[in-house]
Amino acid sequence: MTMDLFEQASPEPRAEPLCEGAVVLRRFADTSGAELLAGIERVAKQVPFRQMQTPGGHTMSVAMTCCGDWGWVTDRQGYRYQHQDPVSGVPWPAMPDVFNALATGAAETAGYASFQPDSCLINRYSPGAKMGLHQDRDEEDFDQPIVSVSLGVPATFQFGGLLRGNRPQRVPLAHGDVVVWGGPARLRYHGVLTLKTSDHPLTGSYRYNLTFRRAR
Ligand code: MD6
Ligand code: FE
Predict the structure, then answer these.
(1) CA separation for the pair 76, 56 (Å, rounded)
(2) Which end of the chain is more exposed for a tag (fewer CB within 10 A), N or C?
């Protein structure tokens, strides 16, 4: 094959293990990126992004909305899953088909064959937004994996151990990268470093993250 100077080879998706149970599927969501972003826009038209309160009374820097049967929410009462948006009282929008297909496909590729998410948390990072180290532990069944999709401007993911004090490794995540996470890695601490200012052709200055989980 001949390629001139301006042609770019489109790299194949590849799997990059982080530890036992967790893998980054590089560029897995590349080809569906624009469709996923259209789905985000559709959901956010019904339930707009908002910055929620932590139980400790802080306002999160990341703006969130949800779709699927169960939405993850936080306020002064704590973290939990709910059928309805606590602001409007209306049920969360259904998960777009392209979301479900991407999540089940990524899980299967990572070795989790029967993952059926009932919850999708949509995180929107603007420059300066970050997410502190935390565990995902509001779900009923820790045997179910998590599928996490990065879209838009790149970010640095912090991937720690099972103890808060374990020093996290830094994992760069770019548009289309999908992290699948389960088994012995399911309760590892993780977070996202402060988003730097940059520009992505599909999202401007934003980074979006879709977190698919089986809540119940
Ligand atoms: C984010 N992700 O990437 C936040 N949780 O914006 C998460 O909190 C996360 O990426 C569990 C598993 C994978 C994740
Ligand atoms: Fe998380």
Answers:
(1) 7
(2) N
Q: What is the mean pLDDT of residues 100-106?
A: 98
Domains of the chain: 13-213 (2.60.120.590)
- Which atom of ligand 1 lies nearest, measured to the CA of 150? 3
**With contact defined as beta carbons under 8 Å apart, do 109 and 172 qualify?**
no
- As residues whose CB is below 5 A from the ion ligand 2, the structure lists 136
Q: Which two tokens stand for residue 12?
A: 């194949």
pLDDT tens-digit series, residues 72-97: 999 999 999 999 999 999 999 999 99
pLDDT tens for each residue of 140-177 = 999 999 999 999 999 999 999 999 999 999 999 999 99
Contacts of residue 46, defined as CB under 8 A and 6 or more positions apart, other chains included, come to: 90, 93
Question: Would you state the pLDDT for residue 13?
Answer: 77
Report d(CA 78, CA 204) in Å as an integer. Answer: 32
* Mutational test site, ligand 1, from 74, 179, 206, 207, max ligand atoms within 8 Å of CB: 179
